[in-house]
Specification:
The complex is a heterodimer of chains A (265) and B (404).
Chain A (H helix, E strand, L loop, with lengths): L2 H19 L3 E4 L4 H13 L8 E4 L6 H13 L4 E4 L2 H6 L6 H20 L3 E3 L16 E5 L24 E6 L7 H11 L13 E2 L12 E2 L5 H10 L9 H4 L4 H7 L4
Parallel strand pairs in A: 1-2, 1-4, 2-3, 4-6
Antiparallel strand pairs in A: 5-6, 7-8
Chain B lengths: L1 E6 L5 H11 L5 H13 L14 H6 L6 E6 L4 E6 L7 H8 L4 E7 L6 H12 L5 E6 L8 H16 L7 E4 L23 H6 L12 E10 L2 E10 L2 E2 L3 E5 L3 E9 L7 E2 L4 E6 L10 E3 L6 E12 L5 E2 L4 E5 L2 E15 L5 E6 L1 E2 L3 E15 L10 E6 L2 E8 L3
Parallel strand pairs in B: 1-3, 1-4, 4-5, 5-6
Antiparallel strand pairs in B: 2-3, 7-8, 7-14, 8-13, 9-12, 10-11, 10-14, 11-13, 15-21, 15-23, 16-20, 17-18, 17-22, 18-19, 18-21, 22-23
Classes of the chains: A alpha/beta (265), B alpha+beta (404).
Chain lengths: 265, 404
């Protein structure tokens, strides 16, 4: 069995386990390449009929191309799409001068509101270990307590394919089916499966985005890779990490740890 | 290939991995700059363990708390290295990491020699069925690169590991901080004629000991239009359209009508595949069931003989109500008998016919379950021969089915 097929089969197993354990489950879709890959795997796991909602957290700062893409594929794939926005914070006009506060308000808080409104017990997310050192420490089934906090000092053991059962005092469980995939794995799978990906990843006028989020905090890289094969070639040669253009990782060294301990993705 | 690196606290695991990545050019330049700046701020020279010890507390205290993963490649293949904590407090995190590995690196500080966690980690590797291990003897610079100290540790450890079934080991003398004998051969140890660590890693075999017996583990059933699709994973063997199958534990018999995969139309499926199947006649089937063929059936019993590793601060008492999870089966259970208790760091049998089991102890036990469980001998088919035990919804032990 080749490497990508092994990863695909394992992820589908995890997704089906999560659905068995938590009927009140949803998937987070950021319209980026990883969560779109996750969406593709979820469609495969349920034979094209996803039995739970797909949630997009819209900060109001997203690229317009992402919104257009989202709406198009939500329709094509008959998704039960829920859009989460922290309307209060957006009205107050919160800006990314203080990135910790902005990410926390527009992303994390918006997510909290959606979870509590819909009473979700578990969320499927497309994060990967190789994206950031702090994500490398994660579990596949990772609990968040009533205050949305990640108790990284005391994570449950995860042996073989046995995952955490639910527990009452937990707020929700995060499930990470792509945890063991690398950036290259994702692109090679996208190529193999012909998964539609938002065009921001492809070079235009000598620049492209390697990682996308909110428009204001994402920096494009110099590149002429305007198709998937060229992106894969570029990735194999690169000496720069994937999230080098993401401002919230950089503000202070332990920014990601702080954000994640408050409930960020 | 997944490789776990284990060993006693401060023997140099995280530094070794950091160095391994650095020497294979697997660390992006901006990450190197970031770590250099952090080290400068702390008044240290480049600290290789910082590439993995990513939690703030880990760097501040200089210890690894939880298992981490990092990816690198050699000309032969891609590797995932799983780092693990060496401190006895974090054993369950070490087991979490090790349970995903196909091979291991055991590290020992040349000056300190074999310590408690060295042995305990080795024991856990043998419990998990991992028998491809390379031993690295680190900090050779602190003992002036002396060959006789290397041989002394090598002989002692060989005997210790043989007693728990770990054999055919390679031993490599290294200096993690300077990168000697990791990727580049050392100039300070001309007496050493073996390979570098990287060369031994590339010689590990992909453990694909596949049994031919069919074990299709059921995760659930999905209703799609008028079809009922049984979904699950093939842990062993293969399944084809038209195969006559038996669904356990109820022993119902039927035939495979189709193999279901989204946007595909396969006639068969093999080990490792997550698929769906439909059957020619409606047969009762539910999550937890295991589908197999008549020619090689698993065991079904309410009494299971096993070896378990207790990983909770709260000790096990013989009357405790527990939850056993094996494949997708979940059943109430109690430990009927603890025949023998083994100390996982000395490998000594410390008690027999005990009424309890403490943290980090290994028990040779008989488990009694409320309902019959379908299982195999761990040595025959690992995926249906290993399980976890939960108490109050927490995993408190991992175990394997033995033959006795």
């Amino acid at each position: 069995m080749d490497h990508l097929t092994a990863l695909e089969n394992r992820s589908i197993y995890i997704i089906r386990e999560a659905y068995y354990r938590f009927k009140k489950i949803a998937m987070l879709w950021s319209i980026g390449k990883d969560s779109t890959t996750l969406l593709w795997l979820v469609r495969k796991a349920f034979f094209g009929r996803i039995p739970f909602p797909v949630v997009h957290i819209d900060t109001g700062y997203k690229f317009p191309e992402m919104i257009e893409w989202r709406d198009r594929y939500a329709k094509t794939w008959h998704l039960n799409l829920i859009i989460g926005r922290n309307e209060e914070a957006i009205k107050k006009g919160i800006t990314p001068e203080d990135k910790l506060s902005c990410c926390n308000e527009l992303k994390t808080k918006a997510l909290k509101q959606i979870i509590s409104k819909n009473k979700f017990k578990a969320l499927l997310l497309g994060i990967r270990r190789d994206e950031h050192g702090i994500r490398a420490k994660e579990r596949v089934f990772s609990p968040r307590d009533i205050n949305f906090r990640w108790d990284y000092k005391n994570q449950p053991p995860e042996l073989w394919d046995y995952y955490k059962s639910n527990q009452d005092d937990e707020e929700h469980i995060r499930v990470h089916p792509l945890l063991d995939w690398t950036e290259l794995d994702v692109w090679e799978y996208i190529k193999r499966e012909r998964i539609p990906i938002v065009p921001l990843y492809f070079a235009r006028n000598g620049k492209r985005y390697r990682s996308i989020g909110c428009k204001c905090c994402c920096s494009p890289i110099d590149s002429n890779a305007d198709d998937i094969n060229k992106i894969i070639e570029e990735l194999k040669k690169t000496d720069i990490s994937e999230r080098a253009g993401r401002a919230q990782d950089k503000e202070t060294v332990y920014m990601m740890q702080k954000l994640r301990s408050l409930g960020y993705m | 290939m997944n490789i776990v690196i284990v060993g006693h606290i401060d023997h140099g695991k995280s530094t070794l991995i950091g160095r391994l990545l650095y020497d294979t050019n697997s660390i992006p330049q901006d990450k190197i700059e970031e770590i250099k700046e952090i080290c400068k701020a702390k008044g240290k020279k480049l600290e290789f363990s910082f590439f993995l010890d990513y939690l703030q507390e880990e760097r501040e205290q200089g210890i690894t708390i939880d298992s981490s993963r990092i990816f690198f490649k050699t000309k032969k293949r891609d590797y995932t290295i799983i780092d693990s904590p060496g401190h006895v407090e974090f054993i369950k995190n070490m087991i979490t990491g090790a349970s995903k590995a196909e091979a291991a690196i055991l590290i020992i500080d040349a000056k300190e020699g074999i310590k408690e966690q060295t042995k305990r980690h080795a024991y856990i590797l043998s419990l998990l069925g991992l028998n491809q291990t390379t031993v690295v003897i680190n900090k050779m610079d602190l003992i002036d690169y002396k060959e006789n100290r290397f041989l002394e540790i090598k002989d002692k450890l060989t005997k210790v590991l043989e007693s728990i079934g770990i054999t055919s080991l390679h031993f490599v003398p290294i200096v993690a901080t300077d990168g000697e004998n990791i990727v580049k051969k050392s100039e300070n140890m001309p007496w050493y004629n073996g390979k570098t660590l990287i060369e031994y890693l590339d010689s590990f075999k992909q453990t694909n000991k596949h049994h031919s017996a069919l074990r299709f583990v059921v995760q659930g059933t999905y209703k799609l239009d008028k079809k009922e699709i049984i979904v699950g994973k093939i842990e062993s063997g293969e399944i084809k359209k038209g195969d006559k199958i038996t669904i356990l534990p109820n022993n119902s018999k039927t035939t495979v009508a189709s193999i279901e995969k989204f946007l595909e139309n396969p006639n068969k499926a093999g080990v490792g595949e997550s698929i769906g199947i439909t059957t020619t006649n409606k047969t009762p089937v539910k999550r937890g069931d295991i589908i197999c063929k008549e020619d090689d059936m698993p065991k079904i019993n309410q009494l299971i003989n096993a070896k378990i590793f207790w990983m909770s601060d709260k000790p096990l008492n013989i009357k405790d109500k527990l939850n056993l999870k094996l494949a997708t089966q979940e059943v109430s259970a109690t430990i009927e008998k603890i025949n023998l208790v083994i100390d996982s760091s000395t490998f000594q049998e410390i008690r027999s016919n005990s009424n309890n089991l403490n943290n980090n102890e290994v028990g040779i036990v008989t488990i009694k379950t409320l309902n019959p469980v379908v299982f195999d001998d761990f040595k025959k088919i690992a995926e249906t021969g290993r399980f976890v035990i939960e108490k109050d919804m927490q995993i408190v032990a991992g175990g394997t089915v033995t033959n006795l």
